[in-house]
């Protein structure tokens, strides 16, 4: 069964600090992996998307890494801001039609002063 | 603004009622989806339409019926609402169905069945 597990489930950090969120998946075969940010009361917004041949992808202060051999990904947030407080969701896609994605349950990040 | 827009944003209704949620996208995408997000924040696909044709129909009670009048619209009708239907429903769209395309999500419709 395809699964995507994220850790930690929740995280509190001080503004300005860095943090790293983890994603392990069992989806196989694998097409791409995405990280989404979901603010409270809003829909998920795409941060990065990586295919199996990509090791890293950056979007501003967000940097995602991918190790397709170990089926692990991480999202590193640099110099956190209060606006980074959100749920971060790892989503893995298998190839083929239908565009079925497997979602992780997310990491709830809170950035405090 | 280019976006995926859903209406209503909030919906409170009694058990047994029938309700609809509407979704429209002006991104020119050819594929649209309905997702359900439960209380644990887990997103699960319900339906997917590509150019008005149903391509994904997960194990969803047949009380849920999607309708796509054109590729820019995907509505969700729910009959005989139950307490367990309470959740946030997200509409999304993408260009293509092959899994390699980015999704754009709407802001969600919070359905509360009382």
How would you characterize this protein structure?
- The complex is a heterodimer of chains A (113) and B (114).
- With 113 residues, chain A is mostly beta strands.
- Chain A is built from no helices and eleven strands.
- In chain A, the strands form two sheets. In chain A, strands 2, 4, 5, 9, 10 and 11 form a six-stranded mixed beta sheet that branches. Chain A has a five-stranded antiparallel beta sheet with strand order 1-3-8-7-6, with no helix packed on it.
- In chain A, strand 6 and strand 7 (62-67) form a beta hairpin.
- With 114 residues, chain B is mainly beta.
- Helix content of chain B is 0%, strand content 55%.
- In chain B, strands 2, 4, 5, 6, 9, 10 and 11 form a seven-stranded mixed beta sheet that branches. Chain B has a four-stranded antiparallel beta sheet with strand order 1-3-8-7, with no helix packed on it.
- The A-B interface holds A 31-32, 34, 38, 41-46, 49, 51, 87, 89, 93-101, 103, 105-106, 108 and B 4, 31, 33, 40-45, 48, 55-56, 90, 92, 94, 96-108.
Major beta-sheet overview of chain A: 6 strands, mixed
Could you say which overall geometry of chain B the principal axes of the C-alpha atoms support? Answer: globular
In this structure, how is the largest beta sheet of chain B organized? Answer: 7 strands, mixed
The stretches of 5 or more residues of chain A where confidence is low (pLDDT under 50) are none
Helix content of chain A: under 10%
Structural class given helices, strands, pairing of chain A?
mainly beta
The helix/strand class of chain B is: mainly beta
Count of DSSP helices of chain B? 0
Radius of gyration of chain B: 13 Å
Helix/strand order of chain B? EEEEEEEEEEE
CA-to-CA gap between the ends of chain A?
41 Å
Low-confidence stretches of chain B: none
What's a quick, concise take on this entry?
Chain A has no helices and eleven strands. Chain A is mostly beta strands.
């Amino acid at each position: 069964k395809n699964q995507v597990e994220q850790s930690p489930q929740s995280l509190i950090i001080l503004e300005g600090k860095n943090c790293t969120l983890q994603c392990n998946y069992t989806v196989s075969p694998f097409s791409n992996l995405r990280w989404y940010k979901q603010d409270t009361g809003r829909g998920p917004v795409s941060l990065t998307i990586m295919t199996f041949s990509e090791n890293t992808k950056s979007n501003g202060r967000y940097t995602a890494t991918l190790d397709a051999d170990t089926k692990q990904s991480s999202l590193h947030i640099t110099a956190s801001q209060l606006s980074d407080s959100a749920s971060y969701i790892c989503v893995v896609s298998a190839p083929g039609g239908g565009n079925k994605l497997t979602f992780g349950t997310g990491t709830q990040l809170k950035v405090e002063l | 603004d280019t976006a995926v827009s859903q209406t209503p944003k909030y919906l409170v209704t009694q058990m047994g009622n029938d309700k609809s949620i509407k979704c429209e996208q002006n991104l020119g995408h050819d594929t649209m989806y309905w997702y359900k997000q439960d209380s644990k924040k887990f997103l699960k696909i319900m339906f997917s339409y590509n150019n008005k044709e149903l391509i994904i129909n997960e194990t969803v009670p047949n009380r849920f019926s999607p309708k796509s009048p054109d590729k820019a619209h995907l509505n969700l009708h729910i009959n005989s609402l139950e307490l367990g239907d309470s959740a946030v429903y997200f509409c999304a769209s993408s260009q293509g169905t092959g899994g390699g395309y980015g999704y754009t999500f709407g802001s969600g419709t919070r359905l509360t069945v009382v």
